[in-house]
């Protein structure tokens, strides 16, 4: 079967006005900047073959898109040059590929129903959890600082504030309604407005860092909401991009916050050792030392959860104690980012309970889940419903079925209007626990199971 000529790529190259030989030389220069030594042999015949429809493999599509973007002074996406991937991108490559090109490409796949389904149903990559060497992180800000702008737009301090405000809005919506609510709007905003800001000109280093950090917050939310929707491979891609952006902004605490989310995901997916590694990376000296007390506590408690899941009881208990001490040092006058405003006594109790549950201390877990339920604010409906679901489960495991049913009934009440894969999963687990009692007509358990079944059918 003959190849189909890539007319999109051909048209963009013609608009650039360079010969194929000149384009190949620029391509090699960009590849060298990214350390892509395997692409140093690219010459004019490669360009001709790519236009003719030959596959462009590995990192080459991203390098080519960046080369064309620089030459044209505007953002050129993989879709623009007919190279949008039909298969899931390798998460490992995201560390070395151009951040902006990766962001826009992933955003396009996320918003395309078929491609998003491909991403969401692919395999969560344990190999991709391996982080680059420390030198990569140390040089990230310098690489971003010297990146050439792709447009003439001059980014302002007001633009930075606008993006920060949008991040706060999307975060509040996630906490109240769950990760599936408003997620399409979040991703669309990221790949259009935010991508355009990132490709513009920065009049000062502080504005560059501020915009990059705000973009990292939004990419983190895109990842976290995908995680909450149980779309784990998709979440993994977004969280990797968020970590890169945070490091490029020189925002060490935010980078730690994102790595903490990756550790949380690994715990939930039964990868405790990987969770411990990621949590330890989030607690590295500069990420922990520059974070506020509330964020330090959050990093610490997820580290404890990883240790608990890995069976390291003594270390997990010590980490829980440190996390509680750190949270106790948080004060009203502290300069805290919006992303950690939710983390208070209720959140610490929830995570502590999850760690104790994984250690086999069901009674202790029940006490802490109850503490979380008592102290949780109404604006955090999603997490509140999940906590109630977990509380009912540990009550049932201890043989207290009637108490568990009452708790689960509260959980179903709290889930009204919440669009969360994690909340839905607690309902699935609830039905499994109730399965031996479904045939007892008129019983509380049977009625609750019927209600849970109805809720799942509407999800």
Order of helices and strands: HHHHHHHHHHHHHHHHHHHHHH
* Shape by Cα distribution: globular
Helical segment tally?
A: 22
Task: Count the beta strands.
Answer: 0
Low-confidence stretches: none
Kindly report how far apart the N and C termini lie.
44 Å
Tell me the strand percentage band.
under 5%
Biggest sheet layout:
none
Q: Structural class of the helix and strand makeup?
A: mainly alpha
Compute the CA-based radius of gyration: 24 Å
Mean pLDDT score: 88
Helix content, binned percent: 55-70%
Protein traits:
globular, mainly alpha, 22 helices, single chain
What does this structure look like?
The protein is mainly α. It is 68% helix and 0% strand. The protein contains 22 helices and no strands. The longest helix is centred in the middle third of the chain and has 24 residues, at 205-228. The chain is globular, with a radius of gyration of 24 Å.
Detail the topology: elements first, then pairings.
Blueprint: H1 7-16, H2 20-33, H3 44-51, H4 60-72, H5 99-111, H6 113-121, H7 134-145, H8 157-177, H9 183-198, H10 205-228, H11 232-248, H12 252-268, H13 272-282, H14 285-289, H15 293-309, H16 313-328, H17 345-358, H18 362-375, H19 381-397, H20 401-414, H21 421-434, H22 444-458
Helix pairs in contact: 2-3, 2-4, 5-9, 5-11, 6-11, 8-10, 9-10, 10-11, 10-12, 11-12, 12-13, 12-15, 13-15, 15-16, 15-17, 16-17, 17-18, 18-19, 19-20, 19-21, 20-22, 21-22
Brief description of this entry?
The protein has 459 residues and is mainly alpha-helical.
């Amino acid at each position: 079967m003959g190849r189909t000529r890539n007319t999109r790529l051909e048209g963009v190259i013609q608009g650039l006005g360079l010969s194929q030989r000149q384009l190949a030389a620029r391509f090699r220069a960009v590849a060298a900047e990214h350390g892509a030594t395997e692409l140093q042999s690219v010459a004019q015949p490669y360009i001709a073959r790519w236009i003719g429809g030959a596959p462009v493999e590995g990192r080459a599509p991203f390098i080519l898109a960046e080369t064309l973007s620089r030459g044209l002074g505007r953002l050129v996406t993989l879709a623009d040059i007919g190279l949008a991937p039909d298969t899931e991108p390798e998460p490992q490559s995201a560390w070395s590929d151009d951040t902006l090109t990766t962001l826009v490409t992933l955003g396009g796949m996320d918003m395309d129903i078929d491609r998003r389904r491909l991403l969401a149903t692919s395999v969560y990559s344990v190999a991709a959890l391996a982080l680059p060497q420390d030198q990569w992180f140390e040089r990230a800000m310098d690489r971003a600082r010297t990146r050439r702008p792709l447009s003439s737009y001059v980014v302002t301090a007001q633009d930075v504030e606008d993006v920060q405000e949008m991040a706060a809005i999307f975060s509040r919506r996630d906490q109240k309604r769950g990760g599936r609510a408003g997620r399409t709007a979040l991703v669309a905003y990221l790949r259009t407005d935010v991508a355009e800001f990132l490709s513009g000109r920065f009049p000062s280093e502080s504005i560059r860092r501020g915009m990059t950090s705000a973009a990292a917050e939004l990419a983190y939310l895109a990842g976290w909401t995908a995680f909450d929707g149980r779309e784990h491979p998709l979440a993994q891609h977004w969280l990797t991009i968020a970590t890169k952006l945070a490091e490029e902004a020189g925002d060490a605490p935010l980078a730690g916050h994102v790595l903490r989310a990756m550790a949380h995901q690994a715990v939930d997916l039964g990868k405790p050792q990987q969770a411990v590694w990621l949590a330890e990376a989030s607690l590295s000296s500069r990420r922990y030392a520059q974070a506020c007390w509330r964020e330090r506590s959050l990093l610490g408690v997820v580290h404890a959860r990883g240790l608990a899941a890995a069976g390291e009881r003594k270390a997990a208990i010590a980490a829980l104690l440190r996390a509680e001490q750190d949270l106790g040092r948080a004060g009203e006058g502290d300069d805290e980012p919006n992303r950690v405003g939710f983390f208070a006594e209720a959140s610490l109790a929830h995570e502590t309970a999850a760690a104790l549950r994984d250690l086999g201390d069901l009674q202790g877990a029940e006490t802490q889940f109850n503490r979380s339920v008592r102290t949780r604010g109404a604006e955090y409906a999603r997490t509140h419903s999940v906590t109630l679901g977990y509380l009912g489960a540990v009550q049932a495991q201890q043989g207290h079925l009637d108490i568990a049913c009452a708790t689960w009934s509260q959980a179903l009440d709290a889930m009204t209007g919440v669009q969360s894969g994690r909340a839905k999963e607690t309902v699935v687990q609830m039905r499994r626990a109730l399965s031996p009692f479904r045939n007892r007509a008129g019983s509380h358990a049977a009625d609750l199971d019927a209600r849970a079944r109805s809720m799942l059918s509407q999800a």
